[in-house]
Write a structure and sequence with these properties.
The chain has 409 residues and is of the alpha+beta class. The protein is 29% helix and 37% strand. Helix 2 runs antiparallel to helix 3. It starts with a helix and ends in a 10-residue tail after the last strand.
């Protein structure tokens, strides 16, 4: 029994020695490097609609119908309808005038056909010296005047067509609408750097992912900067998320052009405005696109929408806006977004394995020179110490492994 316990202790000692040797070898292989200190920062922001549209009329008139109330999703119906009675009268009158022009032109065409035959008969008689030249000239002049009158009527008809087109465009302004289409991919599709299969693959979109459409080239569509997908995979449907969030007019009210009538917020894409320091901005720029954040505790894909280069002298901060990519959850304002960041801070970061701390006098040893350098510890994590700036230590320098009392403070 005693021999068994001795063997057990001996085996444990050998195993401990092997683990210690392996750990020291691994640390030595990886190197104990001084780094610039970082701290973990949490940025917070709250969602809002990506766009806000103020609806106003281009034409005066009386409101005869409002199809939505505050909080309603905008559908296919016009938001506000204005009485089109007088524009309808103008359009009807112009169409009647156009019909009159067409009748007169048909009459002239018939008259010209007769005058052409008459001129040919008189011209043949003139060639045989059977009729005076003055008769031939009169017939020719009559034919020419009829043709000129027909050409004038054709110009008047063209002007009337333009006037009718203008009235039809004006009539569209009597129904206030906004574009309400969402584009998405119907199948899994690769995103490429250009409009052909020869270009580099940048990633993959999965069926149902919403996209923005910018331009088309042959069978390809650009959905972002240097991002193209095959056009056949793109489908469209009426949007959900365009919501009336304010109404400033009622049915029966007489309105003037340019007066705000309603506010429409675009919650199809959620945005989060932030005000950040220079260090936080640098940390955000270093993140991949898109990066991961937490919206009400759930992971979401986030991208930078824009960065305002203007510097606020009072707060010493800059403004930017984040957008949630392909987010399918609740679309509203006030949802909390959290962004964890590692930002640079004052001091240096050194591994605990490089610190010898005897008698409350922490020191590290430089690998190349063997010089022992005292350090001032101002913070710590599980594996590292944060120390005050030291003129003999700088980011990138390698340190030696500490002795048996590694990392003790």
């Amino acid at each position: 029994m005693v021999i068994f316990q001795i063997k057990k202790k001996l085996t444990g000692f050998i195993l401990f020695a092997f683990i210690l040797f392996f750990t020291k070898g691994l640390l030595s292989a990886q190197g104990l490097i001084v780094e610039r200190a970082e701290k973990e920062t949490q940025l917070y922001g709250y969602t809002r609609s990506a766009k806000v549209l103020t609806l106003s009329s281009e034409v005066p008139g009386k409101i005869i119908k409002i199809n939505y109330n505050v909080g309603d999703d905008i559908g296919n119906s016009p938001i506000i309808e204005i009485d089109p009675t007088f524009i309808n009268y103008k359009l009807e009158n112009s169409l009647l005038s156009l019909k009159k022009f067409e009748i007169n032109m048909e009459r002239l065409k018939s008259n010209i056909s007769y005058l052409e035959k008459e001129f040919k008969r008189i011209d043949d008689l003139h060639k045989s010296d059977s009729i005076a030249e003055v008769k031939r000239d009169e017939a020719e002049q009559g034919l020419m005047q009829a043709k000129l009158e027909l050409e004038s009527l054709a110009q008047d008809k063209a002007m009337m067509l333009i006037a009718i087109k203008e009235l039809k465009e004006q009539k569209k302004r009597y129904s206030l609408t906004i574009p309400n289409v969402t584009y998405f991919v119907s199948d899994n599709v690769y995103v490429r750097s250009g409009p052909s299969t020869d270009h580099k693959q940048l990633g993959k979109l999965f069926s149902g992912a919403q996209i923005k459409v910018y331009e088309k080239q042959n069978e390809w569509t650009r959905i972002g900067k240097d991002k193209w997908i095959i056009s056949g995979a793109i489908k469209s449907k009426p949007s959900r998320g365009l919501i009336m969030t304010a109404k400033a007019a009622e049915v029966g009210e007489i309105i003037a052009p340019g007066v705000p009538l309603a506010r429409i917020s675009d919650f199809r894409e959620l945005a989060v405005p932030l005000t950040v320091t220079s260090g936080e901005l640098s940390a955000i720029k270093a993140l991949p696109d898109p990066f991961t954040g937490k919206l009400e505790g759930k992971d979401v894909n986030v991208s930078v929408n824009w960065i305002n280069p203007v510097f606020d002298e009072m707060t010493r901060k800059m403004s930017l806006e984040l957008v949630l990519r392909n987010y399918q959850g609740e679309k509203r304002g006030g949802l909390k977004l959290e962004i964890p960041l590692q930002t640079k801070t004052e001091g240096l970061l050194i591994p605990k394995a490089a610190v010898t701390n005897r008698y409350e006098n922490p020191r590290v040893t430089i690998q190349d020179t063997g010089e022992s350098v005292p350090v001032i510890i101002i913070g710590e994590s599980e594996t590292s110490f944060t120390i005050a700036e030291n003129k003999k230590l700088f980011p990138g320098i390698e340190l030696k492994q500490a002795n048996a009392d590694i990392g003790q403070r």
